[in-house]
């Protein structure tokens, strides 16, 4: 093997081992396809979006990941639906996982809600939220006392409670489940001597909306 051949092999190995900057979301191909279909040049898109032509070119080649405001401007210029841009991302991540120590929490007085499922805007009419409700002894939920759109399904995991629904009262123990239209006033009251924990599902989402 010649000296030049050794040098060539060495360079090839170095290129393979060189770490590549990862672009997490690859929007480039879609942006370029739409731009070309509309007959826009890179310069036209860049001027209308208020960014450099070089940046648009790098985004289309997936060399850089655009900031969200840049992406929104490009989508506006090209009249692209954001769902179209993010559909691959959603396909590659079909399962949502929320770790036990990473749950978002929300407090209404002394009642705690721990989020189990995060509602997503793209779910449309199928959107729901789920959480664990923790009610101290002698306390009760608040927001439902006025009623709201949608339906609710709950399961008592621990303790004893009463569901007050309009002028009706339902006694609930551990393992009992209850479902109802949320349009009528409803309140869950801890009637036992230990904190209540309940698993709850609501559609459409009510509490954990950003």
Main features:
210 residues; alpha+beta; six-stranded antiparallel β-sheet
Spatial separation of the terminal alpha carbons: 65 Å
Question: Oligomeric state of the chains?
Answer: single chain
User: What's the alpha carbon Rg, rounded to whole Å?
Assistant: 27 Å
Strand order of the biggest β-sheet: 1-2-3-9-4-7
Label the structural class: alpha+beta
Helix content: 25-40%
Order of helices and strands: HHHHHHEEEEEEEEE
Number of strands: 9
Largest sheet: 6 strands, antiparallel
By DSSP (H or I, 4+ residues per run), the number of helices equals 6
What fraction of the residues are assigned to beta strands by DSSP?
25-35%
How much is the average pLDDT?
83
Overall geometric form:
elongated
User: In terms of per-residue confidence, which ranges show pLDDT below 50 for 5 or more consecutive residues?
Assistant: 1-23
Task: Provide a brief overview of the structure.
The chain has 210 residues and is of the alpha+beta class. The chain has helices at 3-17, 28-38, 42-49, 53-60, 68-78, 82-92, and strands at residues 105-108, 111-117, 129-135, 151-158, 161-165, 168-172, 177-181, 186-190, 196-203.
Fold and architecture overview:
There is one protein chain. Strands 1-2-3-9-4-7 form a 6-stranded antiparallel beta sheet, with no helix packed on it. It has a 3-stranded antiparallel beta sheet with strand order 6-5-8, with no helix packed on it. The chain has helices at 3-17, 28-38, 42-49, 53-60, 68-78, 82-92, and strands spanning 105-108, 111-117, 129-135, 151-158, 161-165, 168-172, 177-181, 186-190, 196-203. Strand 1 and strand 2 form a beta hairpin. Helix 3 (42-49) crosses helix 4 (53-60) and helix 3 packs across helix 5. The model is unreliable at 1-23 (pLDDT under 50). The protein has 210 residues and is an alpha+beta fold. The chain is elongated, with a radius of gyration of 27 Å. The chain has 6 helices and 9 strands. Helices cover 30% and strands 26% of the residues. The N and C termini lie far apart (65 Å).
